[in-house]
Amino acid sequence: MSCRNKKRKKDKDCPGQRKITSFCRQEAEKDGAESEIGSIEGTIAGEGSGVSLEEAPAPSVVAAPESAGDEACGESVPDETQMDGEKDDSQMDGENEGNECSFEEQEEKRKKLKQKFKKKNSGHRVGYDDEWAQKPYTWLYPVNNRTGMMCTICKRHRQKQRNGEYIWSVYPATCLRLDKVVAHHTSEQHTKACIKDEDRLAAEVNGGIRQALAKTVSMNREAVKAAMKLVYHLAKKEIPHTTNFKDMIKFAESELGCEVLRPLHVGSNATYTSSTIANEFLAVIGALVEEQTLATVRDSPFLGLMCDETVDISTTNELVLYCRCIDGAGKLQVKFLKVVPLKDGKALTIKNALMQHLEGKDLSLQKVAGFGSDGAACMIGRKGGVATLLKVDNQTMINIHCVAHRAALAIGQAGGRVKYIGETFKPNLLSLFLFYNNSSVRSEGLKEIQEVLNDLQLKMKQPKDVRWLSHDSATSALYRSIRSVLVHLNSEMNKGVVMATALWGWLHTYKAIATLYLLCDVLPQISSLSKIFQQKSLDLTEVQTTVEAKKKVVREARDAPIVGGRLEELDHDLGRQGRLHDLEIQDSPKQRQEFAALRRNFVDNIIDNLEERFPQMELLSAFSILDPAHLPETMTGDYGWESINTLSEFYSEGAYPISRRELKDEWIGFRQQLPSYKGKTPKAMCQLVSSNITLSCQYPNIKGLYNRMMVIPAHTADCERAFSCLKRVKTRLRSQLTDVNLNHLLMVRIEGPDISDFNFDEAVERWGGLRNRKILI
After folding, report:
1. Residue 136: is the preceding peptide bond cis (ω within 30°)?
2. Largest Cα–Cα distance of the chain, in whole Å?
3. pLDDT value at position 15?
4. What is the dihedral of CA 739, 744, 750, 751, to 10 degrees?
5. How far apart (Å, rounded) are the C-alpha atoms in residues 560 and 551?
6. CB hemisphere CA count around 277 (13 angstroms)
7. Where are the alpha helices (DSSP H) in 534-673?
């Protein structure tokens, strides 16, 4: 108890009377009537009980300390009837003291004091009223001869105020005003006491402490579950969780009225809204998502690993791991595994990191049927690459260089081998982008010309060799706004801009325009090929078929424009009715001959690069017999036997061998059923054979081939998507994220189910079991 409270506890006078007495003394001193103070004080002190000051008994309740809040800072004043009852006594006292003041003068002074006292209380009616104790203030009752007020609910639970004092519960409130009663009814002190009282009543009605405890635990679990949902939402939306969790809790409680979160505030020293709690929630959620992912991976008959490297914002070399697997229904699943920090990019370091993760998660390397990576020497090197090192322990593992990378490299190298495209067109295309991108004035000037000419308002796109689709988008944007660009370059050239003069000299020639039209015809074919190869469910049988179809289309552009293509419209655009007829395009037979040679050279290089990077692999081609789409119209007796021999020979050894004799026996019957499944894809056939008990029992080795074919990765586009996610999560402001938190965030973002499908009850149970906590769940 503070010194101030101890002093007041020793004081036997009622605090309300003491304040009024002090007030009267100050007012009397101002009027120069110090000799009358004793008479007035005696009158006021005795009005509460109808007796004089000498006869008034001492209060039976300890006086309340003055509180910093509004509830204990008021004064008490007697009512009029009590003051009138003391007229004669005070008059006699005044006469006995030598007629210092007449009765009328004393009465007038009392009225003035009372008016000043009411004015000091802002016009409120002062004094306890029995009508206040009606609904909803049934908890109110007077004490100390009606000079103080107490709350029955707060007193029952000894509820303290926010500042730590016990007004209304242990000490009475002495400000006898109705607005103070209303303020206490809505105060945090009274609200907490009411909650405790409801729990007490529930315990009495429902059977005791056990039911009350169960209700409290249920409310606490719901509060923790709601807080976990906030963390899950933040992780799913890639929003920083440690800096936003507490603010979202506060906003939900104060602005949205989410009472479900209130039990998180157990006490002043135990509020479960800190960044540490947010990290604990994230760890539990991430662990549950990872366990569900690993359960699917472990149950898969075979696996396909994909990995790629990147450098994050903190210059840490990161290895992203993905896995292709077959679930219980026979469906192909692509799962994110982990981001592993590397001390260097050497092949042995990457191999050791892979093996450490597989062993730590109880995954066998012998189940890995395929390994996908980019074309870096440390990955696919014949002597010391990661794939070569892994094959030492698993001879049946097939290494695949990402087909999407191969397609991008094919078109990039084809353009680089053509001198004009590699040394003139590409650099000038990049310079044109920078010419507008580095100047807002030029960009606005181009936009105004596009509006005048009714062209599409397009911005120039940046061409980059490392981006698979950048050249396609860059040439397409220039083609669609070529007229506006030429007009604007001409105007800038007339102003003396050197760069505009150089770009105008390059772009207003027939060779540049024709090359632009050619690239707009050819690049979309390679871009669509790259998009196809980035699909998650891509299987090996689709790769070679798609490449052959695109090669056939590109060959058509070698000697003549593609029918319906942009190059076919070039002569019309340069004619009198064309869109380029008034732009002074330099045209000559020499330029047309140079372009014809350039076109043949460019197309030949594309075809050569595609054939070089997508060779016919005997083993992968053998899987095509399992695709009903490759069935001939008339099946001969020897159909598929050569491929079956190739597959049976390759998979006859290893941890999961296939019997040659059994596979041949199964093929005899299965090849007769293939025509009935001609409309199905390999993915559908894998699901059918895996889920159909009859087919699974009849053809177990055929089923194994389907499973292997589906999990062998054809690309590493999923790793590239993880790179983008990693860079959005680990930003400059979050560069200090730990590896554990980073993996949890990526796991929830990539593999986490919809928030309505996640099992938060299990997460709450696991979080509560981590350590002893003050909140009961």
Report:
1. yes
2. 143
3. 45
4. 140
5. 15
6. 20
7. 540-555, 570-574, 589-613, 618-622, 641-650, 660-673
